[in-house]
Amino acid sequence: MEDRPTRKPPQPSPLGLIVLWQLFNEPMHVYRMQKLFEAEGKDRIVNVRSRASLYQTIERLQRLGLVEVSETIRQEGYPDRVVYAITDAGRDAARDWLRQMLSDTGGQYPEFIAALSLVFGLPPEEAREQLETRAERIAEQLADAERGIAAAPPALPRLFLLEEEYRKTMLQAELGWLHGVIEDLKAGRLTWSEEWLRQLFEAFLPTHNEDD
Q1: Cα(108)–Cα(98) distance, rounded to whole angstroms?
Q2: For the segment 81-100, what is each residue's pLDDT rounded down to a tens digit?
Q3: β-pairing, 67-73 with 81-86?
Q4: pLDDT category, 207, cuts 50, 70, 90?
Q5: Which of 60, 70, 153, 205 could form a disulfide with 27 if both were Cys (CB 3.0 to 4.6 A apart)?
Q6: Are 54 and 14 in contact, with CB atoms under 8 Å apart?
Q7: Among candidate residues 35, 30, 23, the one with its CA nearest the CA of residue 80
Q8: Are 19 and 61 spatial neighbours (Cβ–Cβ below 8 Å)?
Q9: How many CB atoms are closer than 10 A to CB 79?
Q10: What's phi and psi for 98, nearest 5 deg?
Q11: Secondary structure E strands in the chain
């Protein structure tokens, strides 16, 4: 008898993990889920503002057998609301994803790092202007994180502030780094030109041989 192919475990996703963990508490419909996410500040770490993204994620979790429909609430004059519940497989997957995402450092491809790898596609002055805009936005986010931590009830255990502590630390680090790069661009210590880039590419990039 032929061996059946082993089914690959479902790939984790940040929004999927947040959804599964919310359903650990109780079954709920998407509207309530979205409001709870926003109240808990989860909209700062995953895209929960888009109802469409939430529905797409839940549909994927359903296909994987991690979430199921618990009931449909019908109210006259209002659209039906589907209440979703986590399955036993979903509970196992949520814990597996949590372990993996806490320890794993691979497979993360932020847009900003991709843009930095091609920053020479803009003139130095324009690149500096864009980084200054980013620095202003990062400073605003940092101030928001600091306000959130300061406004937390004194009796709230630190366990529930870890994500904001991390967010604050990462924002502080990025802001300091941005200020250093911006200053180097202003002073001309970091610069480039089309001619210099062309010479650099010719010197360091491998040549293409049509016969290879």
Answers
A1: 15
A2: 899 999 999 999 999 999 99
A3: antiparallel
A4: low
A5: 70
A6: no
A7: 30
A8: yes
A9: 9
A10: -60, -45
A11: 28-29, 67-73, 81-86
